[in-house]
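>> received
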Amino acid sequence: MLLLTRGTPTDRREQIILIDPAASPPQVILLMPEKETNGEFAIWRLAPGVYEGFDRSNAVRTRHDSILYIDPETSSTLFYFASGKVHSLLLTD
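>> returned
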């Protein structure tokens, strides 16, 4: 389960939280700490594949679906699982 928490219309802070209800007890993972935003964003599910960082210095091959968070004013970040942990890769800056 993926949650995007937001403030009020005048409070433009948000964060992304991933919850694994199948874990015992349910596991909560903070993907993106609370940050200021202009309110324009997109979240996409991406298929497994190879994704390259914005500076082309590193790339990752994902074995499972991953999450892409896009903030048109700042950047795009890929969140993915590898070795039992959540990792992130900046795709655009």
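>> Residues 38 and 51 are 26 Å apart (CA to CA).
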